[in-house]
Amino acid sequence: MKPAVLLTCILLAHLNAWSQHIKESYLGFSLKGKVKALTEWNYEGNSANFKKDIIGSKFKIFYSKKGQSTALYAYDLSNHNKVIYSHTSTYDKKGRQVYLDSVGKPQTSYSDSYDSNRNLIENYYSGKYLAIRTFYNSKRIADSSYSYNYGGGFQNKTFFYYDKADDDIEESTYGPRGNFQGKETRKFDKRHNMIEEVSVDSNNRRYSKQTFKYDKNDNLLMRIDSNIIYYRGDGSQKLTSNKESSRKDVLVYTYLYYFFDKNHNWLQRNELRDGKIDRVTKREIEYFP
Questions:
Q1: Nearest 5°: phi and psi at 77?
Q2: CA–CA separation, 75 vs 39, rounded Å?
Q3: 219 Cβ contact partners less than 8 Å away, ≥ 6 residues apart
């Protein structure tokens, strides 16, 4: 493997891990006010012996005055707060995010074309290679996307389906030969919060099902993992062999919020798994004047 490709794979692995933290933190929640920067600490623990002084992760995100994220830093707190992953970005004239390297040179780019109905076809490049080609409908919403590996080889295609409110209710993915690879289906409430997500594999076998509940401010209150096949959707670990949980088919996560700032953004959230504390998340939020 070429060094550049290896480095990219390593960075993508870090990005995927931190994206999961961010997804879990902001599911059903949007920051209020003119946010300049957000720092978040996750104090990890377990149901049997939670120690809130053990920080599992930390990241910091910077925003522009338009509310666009311009930089993200993830830190290794066990190694003197060393940055283990970072990216900076700018935006093109259409408001699309462009990632930059350490000297400010674009690493990603876009080119546009149109079909016979003047619907947008968007090409996203990583370096000189085409990474994703997305086809949009007349409402400027993505209908389908095609993914490519480094070198231009076709990997898979995904079709998107929406409800009347334009919420993304289904994504189905197929391989190079048209072989079905998996599907995610979702349900949303009237405020566009996702209230259910179900995933199936290439054999149409469900490997994850989660439901969500929110308060009146769209803060996540409860997440129920009712997947009867695998623990937390992880196909390598069956529920019946999981030593951490006495529940064989359902795991319930509840969220308690403490301390809100002047813009009603929460500053501490406790996550409980089956009634026992599992993670504490603390925030510092900076605002533009």
A1: -75, -15
A2: 11
A3: 28, 29, 255, 257, 266
- Tokens coding 191: 């405020």
Residue 228's closest CA among 243, 220, 239, 217? 239
d(CA 257, CA 255): 7
Residue type, 126: S
**Within its chain, how far is the Cα of 282 from the centroid?**
19
Contact 62, 71 (CB under 8 A): yes
- Separation of first and last alpha carbons in the chain: 48
Q: What would the two tokens of residue 214 be?
A: 């929110």
Per-residue confidence of the chain (289 residues) as pLDDT tens digits? 333 333 333 333 334 434 444 444 434 347 889 999 999 988 876 544 445 445 578 889 999 998 888 999 998 877 778 888 888 999 998 889 898 887 788 899 999 999 999 999 999 999 889 999 999 999 999 999 999 998 788 999 999 999 999 999 999 999 999 999 999 999 999 999 999 999 999 998 888 889 999 988 888 999 988 765 444 444 444 444 344 444 446 788 899 998 999 998 999 999 888 788 888 889 999 999 9
How far are the Cα atoms of 101, 150, 194, 268 from residue 29, in angstroms, in the given order?
30, 35, 11, 14
Residue among 242, 280, 285 nearest 42 (CA): 280
Q: Which of 22, 45, 57 is nearest to 270 (CA)?
A: 45
CA dist 47 to 53, 163, 288, Å? 15, 39, 39
Q: What letters, b where the CB count within 10 A reaches 16 and e where it falls short, cover 32-49?
A: eeebeebbbbbbebeeee
